[in-house]
């Protein structure tokens, strides 16, 4: 069973960010299931952590149990879907604050879809000038296809193209979480069913120090 974590920074309830996040999560779960694996979807609504986020940023000794649980969910995740509404031309402050509170290397090698919502398609470049640099800085494995959805695009041909991008990004995320079985294994051997963080964890578990590998040689 793979763990798929959704982080939504929408403020209203329901929010367009959460609706997009749910579509991405269900599409990804379907692609993972097609690879013979199950996927458990967990959701973090960042607005529910607003008070603890403010507390954590101003008092590092304060108890923030909800935030601590959210951080553990990030640490345990095999894949991430991160969705933010656009505020002042970029990701929301609440969205950024959540990632500011994570431990260093908290997103290392984590397969990730980035997505954003707004009222107008004029903000579509947020994926490349704001979100992708942020998650690259955090060392996440961001899939090539990000998803931007504008309210004005719903029910239009552009809305249909967005649906196709959702499918494409879901395939790319599933490919990182569960390696497709039609891939040729490399020198590391058969890594079928492993990808992203799972591959890194396996490499660490199977690591053999050089001195042990050379033990007995040259004698």
Description:
By secondary structure, the protein is α/β, with parallel strands linked by helices. It has one domain (2-213): Rossmann fold, CATH 3.40.50. The protein is 43% helix and 18% strand. It is built from eight helices and seven strands, in the order βαβααββαβαββααα. Strands 1, 2, 3, 4, 5, 6 and 7 form a seven-stranded mixed beta sheet that branches. Strand 1 (2-8), helix 1 and strand 2 form a beta-alpha-beta unit. The radius of gyration is 19 Å and the shape is globular. The termini are far apart.
Can you describe this structure in just a few lines?
With 219 residues, the protein is α/β, with parallel strands linked by helices.
Main sheet makeup: 7 strands, mixed
Q: Provide the β-strand percentage band.
A: 15-25%
CATH class term: Alpha Beta
Averaging pLDDT over every residue, what do you get? Answer: 87
> What is the structural class?
alpha/beta
- Low-pLDDT sequence parts: 187-194
State the separation between the terminal residues, measured CA to CA.
47 Å
CATH 2nd-level architecture: 3-Layer(aba) Sandwich
Number of strands: 7
CATH superfamily: Flavodoxin domain
Using the coordinates shown, work out and report the CATH topology: Rossmann fold
Order of helices and strands: EHEHHEEHEHEEHHH
InterPro entries: CE1759_FMN_reduct, Flavoprotein-like_sf, FMN_Rdtase-like_dom, NAD(P)H-dep_FMN_reductase
Domain NADPH-dependent FMN reductase-like: 4-148
EC number: 1.5.1.-
GO molecular function: oxidoreductase activity
